[in-house]
Amino acid sequence: MTTENGLYPYKPSRPGTVIFAIAFGTSAAIHLYQMIRGRAWFYSSFTVGAVMMAAGYAARYVSTRSPADLGPFIAQSLFIILPPSLYAATIYMIYGRLVIFVNAAEASIIRPIYVTKIFVCGDVLAFVLQAAGGGMMAQVNLGDLGQKRLRHSSARTSVPQYGRHAWTALLKLMLGAAVVIILRCVFRIVEFAQGHAGYLASHEVYMYLFDTLPMLGVQLLFHFVRADSVFGANQVEKLGDRDSIIHLYERR
């Protein structure tokens, strides 16, 4: 049922859509450049998510011009809701490679070669159900346990540093991003539970505060501490195949 603002329970901000379409679009272009330059193809899902975010706010701008038109309204909703699942998928892939890189598979409850398969499959299901929070929360728990278990590993002091950043900086970034994504998912769950006419859904400011800004923050953080800046340009592709696991385990 439409209102005087079309399909929206409020008058959507047109300047807000333009600002964040440009911000997410610029970030997406930089992520694409960084991914190609570093040949870090496991950032593909993150980059696609960044492009979707930009497309979502562009579609939202179109929707504000015709607020009663169902097509742009559905497009902006889906493109804004779904990308965090793609961000999480990238975190899973980096986590598996990071465990291999620090030569401490025993510190991870789940073997690194299975991390991506297990959690990405869960993320696909969450993508379909639009309830990705559970899978992301599992990632944070695993990362936290792995960090504690690594302190007791004999290999933790022999991890080399090939790039500009230490592996601990990447781990902290991943954990921080995962927490932000979880909090954003909690907001969306509460919003959906209240319904289209609920308090959160009927006030646009909360979407920008608890969804737009946090997700833009996640995108921006991943510009500064990149996996290829930790693993080293020559190590990125090796960490993706099984043969390199044997090679890395011989570094002792």
Report on this model:
The protein has 252 residues and is mostly helical. It has a single domain, classed as Up-down Bundle (Rhopdopsin 7-helix transmembrane proteins). The protein is built from ten helices and no strands. Helix 2 packs antiparallel against helix 4 and helix 4 runs antiparallel to helix 7. The C terminus is likely disordered.
How many separate structural domains? 1
Instruction: Say what the CATH topology is.
Output: Rhopdopsin 7-helix transmembrane proteins
Q: Mean pLDDT score, rounded?
A: 78
Q: Say how many strands there are.
A: 0
Proportion of residues in β-strands: under 5%
Alpha-carbon Rg, integer: 20 Å
Could you name the CATH class?
Answer: Mainly Alpha
Uncertain segments are 131-147, 153-157, 241-252
- The proportion of residues forming helix, as a percent range, comes to 55-70%
What is the CATH architecture annotation?
A: Up-down Bundle
Q: Give the terminus-to-terminus CA distance.
A: 65 Å
Quaternary state, please?
A: single chain
Keywords: Membrane, Transmembrane, Transmembrane helix
Membrane topology: Multi-pass membrane protein
Protein name: RTA1-domain-containing protein
Transmembrane segments: 15-33, 40-59, 79-102, 114-132, 166-187
Write a concise keyword list for the protein shown above.
single chain, 252 residues, mainly alpha, Rhopdopsin 7-helix transmembrane proteins, 10 helices, RTA1, RTA1-domain-containing protein, transmembrane helix
